[in-house]
Amino acid sequence: MAPLLLDALEYQEALYGGHATGIAAINGGKVTVVKAAGPVAHVMKKKPGIAKVKGTCAIAHSRYSDNARDNPDYNTDEMAHPFTSDDGKLALMHNGSITNYRELWKELEKTHKFKSYSEKVDDITDSEGAVHMLGDALASGKNMVQAFQAIAPKLEGFFLLAAINADEPDAVYICNWHQPCYLALGENEAMFVSSRRGLRDMSVFMDRVYQPPKNSVIRLTRTAVETHPMDQDRNVPQLHMNVFQARRMIMDTLREEGRKDIRQLYYELHPEGWASVHNTLSNEWMAYRKDGVYIMNPYFEILEAMAEDEDIDETIDYRTEGGIDDVPRYSYVLG
Fold first, then answer.
1. What are the backbone dihedrals phi and psi of residue 47, each rounded to the nearest 5 degrees, phi first?
2. Which residues pair with 324 in a beta bridge?
3. How far apart are CA 81 and CA 34, in angstroms?
4. Who's near 119: CB < 8 A, 6+ residues apart?
5. Helix boundaries (H) for the chain
6. What pLDDT is attached to residue 178?
7. Given this model, what pLDDT does residue 58 score?
8. What is the per-residue pLDDT for 45?
9. 3-class secondary-structure state, position 197
10. What distance in Å separates the CA atoms of residue 158 and residue 141, rounded to the nearest whole number?
């Protein structure tokens, strides 16, 4: 299980990750977590046991952090995902950015210990509060779906949360507002990833690969998918990208600006370009962003298609970020 998940992370980390790597699995009724700062290859050398983690189900995470990119003190092993609840029964990972985490932390630290806290920066990761909120909701008598439905309205910003619970050793739960997510279902097996690149080794073995609804809570097992509404007060916007216009815009930008990594290219086109190809105004696009709406998989998949068509050249460049020398990032130039 662990090698499969690590491969899936490695296929995706050059998109938007690589600052830290971690796995959590349920085995024998207990949650095991192995994690450290650095991309997959780095962590496998630092903590080779990560490739030997076994269990009935597992979650794995590749972290990207703007703070860690600019300051290595924000990239400690303790700040890597997944995070565990105080009783050790829950493990949770988070994609995105919870913008009101300080407010939540201030209240939660009265009754919970934050393992990601660093005295050097006097801060935590924005994600760890969610596992404590989930644990408190379960302690009040809710099941996992109800617990996610209870905490989601309290979270602001961008988020997909995925969790495992030692009391349910065959289930993975996904709570997604508007982050990238694919589900892959096969015979007695199931998997989720952010980008379909992560399914490179598995897609041929799966009967169905699809993007589940946004604003949903999902219970994923080997044989079934249950989908529930997450937050009835959130409305998923109907945004459709003009692919032809987007491809032309990307090529024009690379022609004028030269080589860009995947993040630089995205922000060269933000907000005016992305608003235009989605047939909306810049202020409306920014309002969507403020509400946590994140349009990334269509962008990733256009770049992948353009590389396959040889309109652009795709390479993986390595750079120093978060105190790590070998962080990978996709870069593009005209073909």
1. -135, 80
2. 321
3. 9
4. none
5. 2-16, 40-46, 66-70, 101-108, 128-139, 144-151, 243-257, 262-268, 272-277, 282-290, 297-308
6. 97
7. 98
8. 97
9. helix
10. 27
Chain centre to alpha carbon of residue 318: 21
What is the rounded distance in angstroms from the CA atom of residue 144 to the CA atom of residue 137?
A: 8
Identity of residue 95? N
pLDDT along the chain (335 residues), means of 10: 96 96 97 98 97 98 96 98 98 98 98 97 98 98 98 98 98 98 96 96 91 98 97 95 98 97 97 97 96 94 97 97 96 96
Strand partners, 58: 25
Measured between alpha carbons, how far is 127 from 159 in angstroms, rounded to an integer? Answer: 9
Q: What pTM does this model have? A: 0.97
Helix (H) or strand (E) run with residue 316 in it: strand 312-321
Alpha carbon distance 112, 123 (integer Å): 15
Q: How far is CA 291 from CA 25, 171, 234, 275, in A?
A: 32, 29, 9, 15
No. of H helices and E strands in the chain? 11, 15
With the CA atoms of 103, 106, 111 and 115 taken in that order, what torsion angle do they form, in degrees rounded to the nearest 10?
Answer: 90
